[in-house]
Give the backbone structure.
Amino acid sequence: SIGKQTTYVIHMDKSKIAANHSPGSVRQFYEAVIDSINKFSSQQEDQEQETTPPQILYAYENAISGFSAKLSTKQLKSLETVDGFLSATPDELLTLH
Amino acid sequence: TTYSPHFLGLESGIGLWDATNLAKDVIVGVIDTGIWPEHIAFQDTGMPPVPSRWKGGCEEGTKFSQSNCNNKLIGARAFFKGYESVVGRINETVDYRSPRDAQGHGTHTASTAAGNIVANANLFGLARGKAAGMRYTSRIAAYKACWSLGCSSSDILAAIDKAVADGVDVLSLSLGGSSRPYYRDTIAIASFGATQIGVFVSCSAGNSGPSISTVDNTAPWIMTVAASYTDRSFPAIVKLGNGHSFEGSSLYSGKGSKQLPLVFGKTAGVSGAEYCINGSLNRKLVKGKIVICQRGLNSRTGKGEQVKLAGGAGMLLLNSDKEGEELIADAHVLPAATLGASAGKAVKKYVNSTKRPTASIVFKGTVFGNPAPVIASFSSRGPSLVGHDVIKPDVTAPGVNILAAWPATTSPSMLKSDDRRVLFNIISGTSMSCPHVSGLAALLKSVHEDWSTAAIKSALMTTAYTLNNRNSPIADVGGSSDTPLATAFAFGSGHVDPESASDPGLIYDIATEDYLDYLCSLNYTSLQLALFAGGNFTCPNPSAFHPGKLNYPSFAVNFKGNVKNMSLEYERSVTNVGTSYCTYAVKVEEPNGVLVTITPPILSFQKIGEILSYKVTFVSLRGASNESFGSLTWVSGKYAVKSPIAVTW
């Protein structure tokens, strides 16, 4: 369903993100991004559709640049329009070898 | 581990295990199922204080506190937000919501890479010896990202991200998924970031062999590790009532069984009894007898559990053609032996040929001296589906029947019903070979502090060997009767030889930009490249670059179509890390159906650090088969810098 959330790993353009936040506040920056897309996607949802706010699981800033979050399809669509968005990969379970 | 250091040529006080080298600080990060911190292998007796550069920490959680860390285990974190978002809250009756290891896998891999020396280590008296991690004085940081149902990619990324920030030098990942383009492979993307700042990343190749193109974790900046047998085995002799006997494998150390009735399938229970699945065995038919169980459907030790529950006296675990002649030893809960597929067929034929079949099992304990190494059938194979231009796996290390540390509350069979507790367990997988290489990389890192991750990788690859302890080519348990010998798609460059790797003569170095150029040659879009580059990256002129140009220490040559005289040219640069004023001459073993020309055939170095280039031209003379193999070796005195060549049409 449209409102159902899936966990995604979101890759962001480090050079564009760096310009938009102060050092040490990457997570707050992503939270602000998520807040903005949530407001936007909520406006797009049917009024009867209950929208769960997106949740950030992790902010990544050393080996990669981005975050993981639980998002609905609409929230993901909104996120894709954010400057610096590179890709979103659904979270998956890997196995021990 | 016991024995594998010796098998790898590591000896106390000499070479890489020299005290001076071991005194240097190297931090190995292990992303796995956590760690059992109280294990003797992680004691910190005599270890100096934690280095000031270390930014890691010891996270508190279920049955885990900061006091569980010490000067040996300097970091422990748990990542479960992704896992819980998919699977639901962790069931704390089966796992710890903390870095504490409930499964054993992480404790085993961490100790294999860097566990401290433990005297008289053994499992039920088997594999007895002095256990040591490959770089046993290294510090360990455990990042728990794997739980009872698997490892969420978002948690793994969080673990890699944190490990890099904490300051690990080496990362060991004995896990994976399915092979996919690097821009969709989260481990590839994160390990690129780690490699970029000097962290060596070693990953297991996967356990999906012997099928071709099953290798995982194939990005060229990752060290992809295949698994082999050492010459240590745990034989069990199965004697049938008709007098025929077969050698299998077992970790049972008690007395053997006398000749007992043998039951299988319908003579043991209902449908499913041939696989010994839950509830399929009939106690009346099984009690006091040896039960034959075929591989598949449930776990190997789980079959033994079912036999024991039904009152069986023993088990013969028969491989199917899929497992072939693989002889993995398991800590079964009753006297049991694994038999290869051909012995299995003979056993079944015998059972069908007589009304009262019988068998006995005699356990031989720990035996040394088999031809070794031999490539494990389960070890995943190339060619890589993602990067045809790089041979994967890269190298092979011991990964079958490896004894290493085990949690105090986990049974060696990993069965809940098994109340045995052990200090060490013997298990198999590329999961076990990977931390061997992680530890070896840590050793090389301490000897050559200025070497890049690519240089360490190159040293381990170009010094790997392809002949066994009988001076014959390394065999492959998963090989067909036509080709029982292992190829570069099974063992990569060969079996690691750490002492040779510490002094390789020449290295093939690769910088971050080179990897990005390689990705350009794969026609990655600017968005896909930005995942690795961290922003815009301008590719060089596409005509100036092709994938084979990556300065990789092996050659994957792909002739598209079987066209005679098709020619491919590769370039390589080698850095002299041996002696000044030295001359290398090239020696080529041409793959069948391929003409190889090297220009120049001689490389003369004037000083250490000097870089010289050469070109290799491969001309297809039309292959009779779809693939053939050869090698290119630069030879100078004691140095032989070898690169495998794998050709596909």
Summary: Chain B has 15 helices and 34 strands.
